UniProtKB/TrEMBL annotation:
Compositional bias ranges of the Polar residues kind: 423-434
Lineage per the UniProt record: Eukaryota, Viridiplantae, Streptophyta, Embryophyta, Tracheophyta
UniProt xrefs under SUPFAM superfamilies: Serpins
Entry-linked CDD domains: serpinP_plants (cd02043)
Region of interest (Disordered), residue spans: 423-452
Domain Serpin: 18-396
UniProt protein name: Serpin domain-containing protein
GO molecular function, one term: serine-type endopeptidase inhibitor activity
Family of the protein in this entry: Belongs to the serpin family.
Length: 504
């Protein structure tokens, strides 16, 4: 029979995510980036709770915001089957959500726990030799983590984290790779100054956009929402809808206050209430590329949130997990996460492992969104409200030497659309650039012009040489507000007749 909690109203995965963000950001106030998966931590704790009883179970339920173990299993199963369903074969995000349980071969899992792990959590359960071959067990667990995260995370544990006293390890892995619904063009990326919290600056590559973006303006901060490509729709069930949300404080040193506002909100719908609801025209738009990694023990943070008995060798009650008389207690909650955000989209992964050991405002005017100072970000599934990844960017990825020159020399034919035009060359216009075509920007799947076409004042011009049309050098330039013209220079040499040439 399942036990139930007698605590206050459950808050659920979203509230846990925001509380974790507040605790982790405060812990890392020294100035480091942060990336973690609240959903992975929630899922690993939920599966661990399936083996808890009594006061220990009550603490799990209170921290996770549920009334019973059945509710936890139903929540995780619903997310796995719907919100986190892989959509890569239909053109949407590639998503992987996996569980693993490893127990020492001398200590079997209890039938009820094994059944819950297999049926409700779809977990792989395997016996290993922690007693005699702990290093071999670590290799097996790390191989599972690498496979579950597409090798983005190649290891979860080190040899020193597993001992002969280890009895059970429970793990969850989340992998996400999504392409922006409207990708940024690498040619538009420029270097600029990013302001650290201490006031210093350094150069980072900024992605740029023109036209319209999903932006909401609130008191003291702005929110940018960047949707990921969804892929083909099913007839009877709408697909998951993923997006990245950037919470940017107005003040350069305002991130701590903004995170405190988010984490301490009395509303569990804070995220949903502050997301943009419509496209707005942007003025200045800059968003840095970034790649972040995190590896650490979440035990202290979770204890500060109220999960304490499970870590106490005398008070922990995890007797529903494994056979044997020796009591189990949580030794650590290991969490690793990686995320990379660039012009194409996002790739992210996280692994969480718990180890048990035997005791011994809206505007229609152009809006600037310049993320040149620290900000918070969330990767969410909009229909369920699940926060898959969260973190803070205090120092984005710096500019790579030589990258600026590479960007300036890269030319994509897709950016130039020269249509047939008749232009007789005369003495009067031989040294003048004559406009010959205006690009018709391509439309994206949502009917909006893609970022490739969001260039105000785009104009192509034909510039003949001064020495006559025998050997015509055609220079095609694009003039755009705020865009260096020489970035879009295309040179083509062609032989043409002496008079009245037709340019293809």
């Amino acid at each position: 029979m399942d036990s139930t909690a007698t605590t206050t109203k459950p808050l659920g995965p979203t509230a846990l995510a925001l509380r974790l963000l507040g605790e982790l950001a405060e812990t890392g106030a020294g100035g480091s980036n942060l990336i973690f998966s609240p959903l992975s931590i929630y899922a690993a704790l939920a599966l661990t709770a399936a083996g808890a009883r009594g006061a220990t179970l009550q603490e799990f339920l209170a921290v996770l915001g549920a009334t019973s173990r059945d509710e936890l299993a139903e929540t995780v199963r619903g997310l796995a089957e719907q919100a986190l369903a892989d959509r890569s074969l239909k053109g949407g995000p590639r998503v992987s959500f996996a569980f693993g349980v490893w127990h020492d071969q001398t200590r079997q899992l209890k039938p009820a726990f094994r059944r819950a792990a297999a049926q409700a959590y779809k977990a792989d359960t395997r016996a290993v030799d922690f007693r005699q071959q702990p290093a071999k067990a670590v290799k097996q667990i790390n191989a599972w983590a690498a496979a579950a995260t597409n090798n983005l995370i190649d290891s979860l544990l080190t040899d020193g984290q597993v001992s002969r006293q280890t009895d059970v390890i429970v793990a969850n892995a989340v992998y996400f790779k999504g392409r922006w619904q409207d990708p940024f063009l690498k040619e538009y990326t420029v270097d600029g100054k990013f302001h650290r919290l201490d006031g210093s600056t350094f150069d980072v590559p900024f992605m740029r956009s023109w036209g319209r973006e999903y932006i909401a303006c609130h008191d003291g901060f702005k929110v940018l929402q960047l949707p990921y490509k969804q892929g083909m729709h099913d007839r009877f069930s709408p697909p998951p809808r993923f997006s990245m949300c950037i919470f940017l404080p107005d003040a350069r040193n305002g991130l701590a206050g903004l995170i405190n506002t988010i984490a301490s909100s009395s509303s569990s719908d804070f995220m949903r209430e502050h997301l943009p609801t419509s496209l707005v025209k942007v003025g200045k738009f800059r968003l840095p590329r970034f790649k972040l990694t995190f590896s650490g023990d979440m035990s202290t943070v979770l204890q500060s949130l109220g999960l304490q008995a499970a870590f106490d060798e005398e008070e922990a009650d995890l007797h529903d997990m494994a056979e044997g008389e020796r009591p189990l207690a949580l030794q650590s909650i290991v969490h690793k996460a990686v995320i990379e955000v660039n012009e194409d989209g996002t790739e992210a992964a996280a692994v969480t492992g718990s180890m048990m050991c035997g005791a011994s405002f809206v505007t229609h005017a152009p809006v600037d969104f310049v993320a040149d100072h620290p900000f918070a970000f969330f990767v969410i599934e909009e229909r369920s409200g699940a926060i898959v990844f969260a973190g803070t960017v205090l120092e984005p990825s710096p500019t790579v030497p030589g990258e600026k020159r590479l960007r300036r020399t890269r030319v994509h034919a897709n950016n130039v659309d020269v249509r047939p035009v008749q232009w007789p060359t005369t003495n009067e216009n031989a040294n003048q650039g004559q406009p010959v075509a205006v690009r018709n920007p391509p439309a994206s799947s949502d009917g909006q012009h893609s970022r490739a076409g969001r260039l105000p004042g785009l104009r192509l011009a034909l510039v003949p040489p001064s020495d006559g049309p025998q050997r015509l050098s055609t220079h095609v330039r694009c003039w755009c507000k705020g865009v260096p013209p020489d970035l879009y220079l295309v040179r083509k040499v062609m032989d043409v007749p002496d008079t009245s040439p037709t340019y293809p």
